[in-house]
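Morning!

This is the sequence you dropped in the shared folder:
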Amino acid sequence: MSRGMKIICAAGLVLLVAAGAFAAPKALKFGYIMPGPDPWYGYAKDGFLFAAAKNNVSVAVVNSDYDQQKELANLDDLITQKVDGIDLFSFNPDGVQIGAQKANKLQIPLLAEMSAIAKGPGTVVSDVEFDWYKLGVVIADTIAKLHPGERVLEITGLVGQGPVDLYLKGMQARMKELGKNTLVGIQPADYNREKAMNIMQNMLQSGQQFTVVHVGNEDMAMGVLQVLKDAGKLNNPIHVISNNGSPEGLEAIRSGDLEATVSTSPGVEGLVCFEALYRHVQGKKIPAQVMIPMIPIDKTNVASAVAWKVDDNAYAMVRKMFDDLGVK
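The structure's back. Tokens below.
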């Protein structure tokens, strides 16, 4: 080979190495598994997608419709797509453990959103939660403060789902500790407004005595409020307390229909989940559990509620939260 050819080859090799060094990083794709059709889950998904778009990450979204077998099929589908990470918003801790084992075998990072994880060999990037036990304590404290000595009906979501079980445990323990209220019953409505309305109608007809109803989310609470209005019993004598701080819920607080709630933004939840998964994929160490703040709300501080629909300011707040945790 002539000297000239050697120089040309060497130059070509340098160009190839340089091109490799400056090649665009691999485009990331995440999977996002929703547990069902409740509005909360939609806002959480929107928060996740908002952050993904800011970081040029594509997302495949699937919905399990509260079906364990469909959840597993969704997980298998995302694994087949060879996604770079999965956010699993399951409706029970056992589902997360099964999902974690599947993902671990293929070294696909899996994050648990609001689901916790049952004991077992499977591991997750992080468990992103609100402090659901504390939520139950806050609810019991609110009822004891506003309605000491009164009897309480609980209309809850999906019993067996981690967050529901934890807040019920916290609420019952705190009620027993305070000794100011009696819980007359726990009625599951499966996060379905129509079921919550039917339960409320049946309880009014049952003759059971109670003057406070806690409803496990504000979508169901809107139905309960309507039943009580139609029966002429809203705030006369039955008061309704809920949780979530949804747009509908906050409007009901302002109008006086809903007495109190707890602000827990699903949009911010989605931002936090994306950021945890994204930083993990970038090689950062994420805490085993990330807790999102919550704020008790009534008519006096309704402006303090955290919006469900996210924006750049909310995402900046979440990024700062991770920076402050040392996840840089």
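Headline: The radius of gyration is 24 Å.

More detail when I'm at my desk.
O.
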